[in-house]
């Protein structure tokens, strides 16, 4: 239904910034909620942030509030994750995902996201 491609990952020093992009193609109108997840080596995948195409409502995990900003460009069918004040613990593979649901973003679970990108590596060094 929808294909997702992430980009923008790389190596950055602690305290620095990166902006990730996720471009959607296909039947994007059927997936109103977009999210970013991350997975560090040896750890489970965790939720980072989510946004709705319609209205732009956002929701963040507590660990990234005030540092990360999720946004979207509907015309470009692209979702962004601006990451500032990066910490060593932010190192992970970052994935974007799409969910076809209108439930509150706070209530969504990982299994609600049916489409996933390939991921992009973010490495934060000291």
Describe the structure.
The protein is 0% helix and 52% strand. It is built from no helices and 11 strands. The strands form 2 sheets. Strands 2, 4, 5, 6, 9, 10 and 11 form a 7-stranded mixed beta sheet that branches. It has a 4-stranded antiparallel beta sheet with strand order 1-3-8-7, with no helix packed on it. A hairpin with a 4-residue loop joins strand 7 (68-73) and strand 8 (78-83). The termini are far apart. The mean pLDDT is 94.
Cα-atom Rg, whole angstroms? Answer: 14 Å
Order of helices and strands: EEEEEEEEEEE
Number of helices: 0
Helix content: under 10%
Q: Could you outline the blueprint of secondary structure elements for this entry?
A:
Layout: E1 2-7, E2 10-13, E3 18-26, E4 33-39, E5 46-52, E6 58-60, E7 68-73, E8 78-83, E9 92-99, E10 113-116, E11 120-125
Parallel strand pairs: 2-11
Antiparallel strand pairs: 1-3, 3-8, 4-5, 4-9, 5-6, 7-8, 9-10, 9-11
Observed structural traits:
11 strands, globular, seven-stranded mixed sheet, mainly beta, four-stranded antiparallel sheet
Summarize the structure.
0% of the residues lie in helices and 52% in strands. It has strands at residues 2-7, 10-13, 18-26, 33-39, 46-52, 58-60, 68-73, 78-83, 92-99, 113-116, 120-125.
């Amino acid at each position: 239904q929808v294909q997702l491609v992430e980009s923008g990952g790389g190596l950055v020093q602690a305290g620095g910034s990166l902006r990730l992009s996720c471009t959607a193609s296909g039947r994007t109108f059927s997936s109103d909620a977009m999210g970013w997840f991350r997975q560090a080596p040896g750890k489970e995948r965790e939720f980072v942030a989510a946004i709705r195409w319609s209205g732009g409502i956002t929701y963040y995990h507590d660990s990234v509030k005030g540092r990360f900003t999720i946004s979207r460009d509907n015309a470009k069918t692209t979702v962004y994750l601006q990451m500032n004040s990066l910490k060593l613990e932010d190192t992970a593979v970052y994935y974007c995902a799409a969910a076809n649901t209108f439930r509150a973003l706070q209530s969504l679970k990982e299994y609600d996201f049916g489409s996933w990108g390939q991921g992009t590596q973010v490495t934060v060094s000291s």
